[in-house]
## 1
Amino acid sequence: MRIGVCIKQVPDTDAHPRIADSGDHIDDDDLSWVISSCDLCALEEALLLVEAVEEEEGGIDRPELVVFSLGPARVEEALRKALALGVDRAVHLEDAAFRGGDAMADGRALAAAVDREGCDLVLAGAQSDDLGQAATPAVIAGTLGRPYAWLVIAVELDAASRSVRAVRELEGGMNEVLRLELPAVLAVQAGINKPRFASLRGTLQARRKPLEKVDCAMLGVEPGQVGKAGARIETMAVRVPPTGGGGLRIAGDAAEAAAELLAHLEREALL
Amino acid sequence: MSRQEPLVWIVENVGSGPGSRETLVCAQLLGSDPRLARLDEDRLGPYSPGVFAKALGALIASGSRERKSRSTVVLLPHTYQVAEFAPRLALLLGAAYIPSISGVHRDGEGGLRFRRSILQARLEAEVRPRARTIVATVQSGAFSSDETPAPPRQVVEVCLPADMEPRPEREILGREAASAGGVDLAGAERIVTAGRGVGGADQVSVAADLAAALDAELGASRPVVDNGWLPREHQVGSSGHLVAPKLYVALGVSGSIQHLMGMSGSRVIVAVNTDPEAPIFSLAHYGIVGDLHDVAPALTGLLNERAGR
Ligand SMILES: Cc1cc2nc3c(=O)[nH]c(=O)nc-3n(C[C@H](O)[C@H](O)[C@H](O)COP(=O)(O)OP(=O)(O)OC[C@H]3O[C@@H](n4cnc5c(N)ncnc54)[C@H](O)[C@@H]3O)c2cc1C
Ligand SMILES: Nc1ncnc2c1ncn2[C@@H]1O[C@H](COP(=O)(O)O)[C@@H](O)[C@H]1O
């Protein structure tokens, strides 16, 4: 059994991104990069699945864990971090042809990589913190013709029947319980577990774990199908959304602002 | 891209959540008399992403063939069910997939441009489709109109194509209620909500103290709950409580669409945030740009003074 996890490296959301002079992308230079929050939960869930098998069967048939990320050289840091957390191997999809993809293009490339490794179960994040398309894992599933669920909040592996039991979040305070046959793709919602921190030992071990770089040729994908060439959407401009339309801005130090706010609330008979 | 009006489909009955009225308003902006495609489990069998995408895809593709020269736009409300199967629909159609759009207009040459939030609503992007068929999901709350648009004249029930077996790719074992709690947020007149900006479990008390001084219930954004700083029953938003109190005080909440969906109906909204560009400010009736760790205790102090506490 092999479990794959797709992680995306995204700009730290606490940092303020600067828009490039061209106006159609954000400046990469002075950003700090992190693993997207849902993906950390997907990683943790995969580690928990492996540990559950280890406990039950004493380490026999322990699933292998492979992490995938598509992106430029900086992405290696995210992959090393995943290795430090306990993942066995990393696959870095790195090729100039991968630049500028959308969910369709990136999903197709990731699908080829996942297929090449023969992953029985693929976990991904429900939604990336930067583009928030909520679509890449669905494209992976669709390309490979595999069962799929989005917004998964619990996963149980049943190796004997080669299936997973997954709980999917619905609107209005309801959940749906599903059974999916393997191979399957699950997109994990944020907050379903507490992602662990890497130990010093894990970090040292990570340096010796295999990290493979793969390009279009190795994946057998046409360069025209991925990256900007394969993307079906193009970003023409990015901007700070207008924050107008709001009500009154109260200025002053904390004490003054607090007093003024209370005066307004009192006038509106809200106290 | 031609100046010709696109063939517009709106899609109905796709899970609970926001309705299709907004897709209709959006369709009007595209200047078209839209067709309505209705998805119904009685015809299609129990929902699964693969089956719904294929059945709808077959209908859209045949409509596009019949109108060779025009582009096609498929508009769906951005519900949890749609977000699950719509990318698959786009993949089948070789379409541009543009999720959670908040605006649409035409560029100088008459080509379509769509607006959507990125980086958790810190920025917005203007996106151009590069395919003749476009599948776009409509962000809840983004398109409103005082007039109710006329319902589409052409309504098509989506059926399973003759050559397709309704084999769901997954089995539904059941439904269960997510954990319910004893916090009466839905009926509360005043709510003070702790966002991720409070900074930690040990600091939630600044929000709790203000809530007590205002005689308000304590709310939380999702990350506050996900991090275990407050129990799930405090969560406000699309996957938490939907609330509409007289007074809603958001402390360190950025104002993501999922949060706004749960509280935008509040009568008076107060926001305290260090970031003057936080989206919550465009909704807030009173906004204070500042550190909640200064502002909230100042408010609590003044309120307690007033009450003689
Ligand atoms: C399917 C789905 C469902 C979801 N459902 C919900 C839901 O029901 N409810 C919900 O809330 N979210 C929900 N989310 C998550 C949502 O997308 C956002 O991630 C979340 O609302 C952000 O919470 P936040 O504003 O507390 O945190 P952030 O976005 O991180 O914002 C924190 C804010 O605090 C400010 N800040 C930091 N320090 C201070 C300080 N000292 N003083 C003042 N301000 C400070 C920052 O400037 C920032 O604006 C959902 C997401 C998905 C994908
Ligand atoms: N470049 C990438 N490399 C690896 N995984 C990705 C990449 N882009 C998206 N994903 C996965 O797809 C999920 C959803 O991304 P998105 O469709 O952009 O919202 C992410 O949380 C990741 O798990």
Note: The mean pLDDT of chain A is 94.
## 2
Amino acid sequence: MPKKARAKKAKPQDERKKLARFFIQLSRDPGLRGRFGKNPHGTMVKAGLSKKHIAVVRSGDPKRIRKTLGSAGPPGCFILLFPWKKR
Amino acid sequence: MRNGSLTVVGTGHLIAGQATPEALQSIKTAKKFFYLVGDPATAYWLETLNPTAETLENSFRIGRNRMDSYLEMVERVLAPVRKGLRVTVAFYGHPGVFVFPSHEAVRRARSEGFAATMLPGISAEDCLFADLGVDPGQQGCQSFEATDFILRKRKFDARSPLILWQVGGIGVTTFRSKHLWSRAGLRLLTSVLRKTYPAEHEVIVYEAAQYPVCPPIIQPVPLSQLPKARVSIISTLYVPPREMARPDRRMLARLGLRSA
């Protein structure tokens, strides 16, 4: 694959990482959370989020956010306690 | 005690915001680190904390019996312990609440002579207490896995809050990728609860917040409408008490107390 095409293909992954990093920082940095509360759009622009991802964050829809981050399924659906078997 | 150890930790529910300092320390200093979390951002975060990070998610396959997946995870986690490494494994939520492989790995590690520890974390129930303003010290609290609640006909007190876990996966033994695994199970649960609570009794479908930009999902519905509610596999059902329990007069007297 030509270099240019490879770089283009890797971009959505980098964008997703940027979004993930933004959520991580938002969870761990009360200062950033405060700035986000006062000026969500400006904080996201400063964090380098794309227009598409800014819209996803603003939607406040966890399913949409999860899908954008790259998960097809529901969260935490795999550590359920279940001792029963189908007949 | 043999060389090699296992520490099991929880990451809570909110991305990167609910892991305790001791859990973080254990993750960062482990010689081998495994994780099983429900969100790609949490996975990304954990991978930045320890370069040996390895997901256990690929032990799941659509349609595979979950117990087979759990046992495979246990063996994957114990393999480096047996080689003498200090191993940490992180699960989302509390690592000891509704997590079979964590308890099983600790049990097996100890039985083989390895040091094994489970550190407490923040469970969905902890989040529920905070978000719904429920204090289990006020009227008590009963907590059951929903399928277990139905199958074993659990006895409960309708004068005390009732919490039912995994209401979106009632009767399902395999792994599925949908958000709601069984609408039929939800209908069955409703019919069981209707024997004790009136149709208009308001119940709450709850999901802890996972992203710092999303509030928790708190969906009050009359019990009769529960089968039509937006329920996912991570939803927890909160059933408020039907009535207040009155104190027993004789017991009050025996304790030398009177109603305030």
Note: Confidence is low (pLDDT under 50) at residues 4-10 of chain A.
